[in-house]
Amino acid sequence: MKIAKVIVDVPLMQTDKAFSYAVGQEFSELIEPGMRVHLPFGTGNRLVQGIVVEVLEQSEQLENLKTIAELLDPEPVLTPEQLWLADEMRHSVFSYKISCLKAMLPNLLNSNYDKLLRASDGSSSKWSELTEAQKIASAKAVRAGEISIEYLAKSKENRKIEKYLSVPDLDKLAQFEIEKRAKKRLELKYFLLRLNQEKIALKTLDFSTQIIKFFVEHDLVKIEEVEISRTKEKFAAIQSDQAKQLNAEQTQAFEKIIHNPERTFLLEGITGSGKTEVYLQTIDHFLKKGQTAIMLVPEISLTPQITNRFIARFGDKVAIMHSGLSDGEKYDEWRKIKSGQAQVVVGARSAIFAPVENLGIIIIDEEHESSYKQDSSPRYHARDIALLRAKWHGAALLLGSATPSLESRARAMRGVYDLLLLTKRANEAAILPEIQVVDMRQEISDQSTNFSQTLLQKIKEKIEKNEQIILMLNRRGYSSFVMCRECGFVVDCPNCDISLTLHMDTRTLNCHYCGHVQGIPQTCPNCQSRKIRYYGSGTQKVEEELHKILPEARVLRMDVDTTRTKNAHEKILDKFGKHEADILLGTQMIAKGLDFPNVTLVGVINADTGLNLPDFRASERAFELLMQVAGRAGRADKKGEVIIQTFNPNHYAIQLTKAQDYEKFYEKEMAFRKELSYPPYYFTVQVLISHQNEEIVIQKAYEIAQLLRQNLTTKAKILGPTARPIARTHNLFHYQILVKYRFEEQLENALNQVLELTQQRENKNLRVLIDSEPQNFV
Ligand code: ADP
Ligand code: ZN
Ligand code: ZN
What we know:
- Helices cover 31% and strands 24% of the residues.
- With 778 residues, it is an alpha/beta fold.
- The chain folds into five domains: 2-113, GIY-YIG endonuclease (3-Layer(aba) Sandwich), CATH 3.40.1440.60; 161-227; 236-422, 3-Layer(aba) Sandwich (Rossmann fold), CATH 3.40.50; 434-479 and 536-672, Rossmann fold (3-Layer(aba) Sandwich), CATH 3.40.50.300; 683-772, CATH 3.30.70.600.
- The protein has a seven-stranded parallel beta sheet with strand order 14-15-13-16-17-12-18, sandwiched between helices. It has a six-stranded parallel beta sheet with strand order 19-29-28-20-27-26, sandwiched between helices. The protein has a five-stranded antiparallel beta sheet with strand order 2-1-4-3-5.
- It is globular and about 90 Å long.
- The two termini are 54 Å apart.
- Bound molecules: adenosine-5'-diphosphate and zinc ion (ZN) (2 copies).
- Adenosine-5'-diphosphate (ADP) binds at residues 244-247, 250, 269, 271-277, 426-427, 595.
């Protein structure tokens, strides 16, 4: 008899270990690690989903074992590597193993969708409607490649089938007599004979279905259903491109990587220095050796330009994975990878789990971006997963950035990573832009304007020369809200300690934490005054102001409000690329990866927001962002200029952006981190404690801090407990403890003890989250 070890999808501590289940005779030939199953769990009759992690042969009959109710997959959906990865990552993310495993599967497979099995002759059947014997036969056929699987999502959107027509036997067709009267049939006959067995899409044929039916009924033609990848049309629209001759620095970087394929590299190159070209050519090198590649980019839906460069170079070999895709599209891409059809995966954070085999290289572009850390469970950092996968495959790992995170740069300085430098712009005519800092305290006497004379003057000048402008409004830690001018009352979420955000497109107030939505009040709920004012998004206000001052300028706005619909980013950028607008005005989302040769001016409207946030990375983030957006100017042969407006012109993050001096910034920031014992000198782990009752949460937070102090050495620095900056959300009160440490052998053990507290009956409603290397403190 066979026994399956299964991780069940039930969020309980004890479920982190695999449970043993008996495998019925009907499944015993089929079952393999990495398959999903349905099984009875707990006392009720309810079936839960689980993932098989091991299959054992058991000679004697075991009593009391429950039996697997159903096998959900004809073949494993998780690879042995992924099962190993879940075990490894669990130690650093403090999440349930099941949530690690689920992070590796496309959404469609984490919900209960039925499957359609499609045979090569076009016939299909639903998995749930098959008998056990048929299931077994089908599963074998799937593995032999005779049947393909398709998951049925709720919507039709899940599949796109195109019908193709072909002629199985040309001679038969040639000899088949058609009456002279039936002109259309004759036409089709000779049309098909001329096609010479080539397949043709039914929808392109100019013959009625009646005529085609006649040919089908006489076995003269065959209709075949072919599944169309939903991204195919997009791919077809992109022009292919050729590798460029690498310059000396690029060549040196390229050579080092390909000759040391098991190392980790930090490619530090100024904006426009040709990092992407190095990525493209290294990937090409590994592809030629028959290997595969993963290319991570931050928030890919914001930067269609970069994805397009990979499609242009590698065409159909590319699979795209990001949050902007529907579940069906994600699944398509996942399958393209799993079947080996795609060898280059380009995607955002979660693409690090893509089921590629024989991995040659993993590249993480803009490695300093905080979006590589997931801020819900499992709280993994893509870089850590990349290190694990690179180890498993003996693959190279390449981290790229113009402004590396201090953590990565420090590792490169210690020789843990190999540092590769690109110091010049790749396009010889392009030189780094000139940066001017405008002191807004001097420039504007009137607080109601967002523009200094200096910036306005420059904008006009550029428009006259027919050049383009990017304007950024930094919105980190800043959102639109509604306030009463009479009494200062701000409309807060009833469940959370935070003001509601104004959404102008839907004219509602929304809570970004719990999802609460309400209308905009006409009068102040506190004092009934009518002087309720919108403190609108900044971008919208700036746009209005621009229209007033420069009515002739054509402005495109890119922010959360204008990009809610699918492909909205792409459309805006496309218009701007075609010079249908002079100014692209946006939030941080325009700072990333854009490459528009005609942009010669970048204006930062407010460099200050974000600088003073209570987060030790505030300066690092501000510096990265300013350097990144500055890099959008003058990328081709026209010289670029950058104007930074600020009320803190002497802040080092701003001064060093002006000097475009990453090296100095690194030194200065490292000194500060050392003095205050922050990363990269110390590791950090944050414990978040939540409960509906404020008194209980305080009591438990102190209990947990005590537990940590008892278990860790005196070298660990334990800060807190303190109330979170946003002390209440979802009707829960939150407290936090921050542990800073270097080497703590007992850390994992101590944190597990903390998690175990939540399993005690008396702590049923206590929530404890552990976040290793937290990225956002506000
Ligand atoms: P980065 O990724 O560092 O910002 P890119 O790879 O986007 O830089 O390169 C900037 C510009 O220079 C792009 O337009 C790119 O096509 C061009 N470029 C890159 N490498 C070369 C090269 N070796 N020769 C000519 N042009 C290059
Ligand atoms: Zn809320
Ligand atoms: Zn009021």
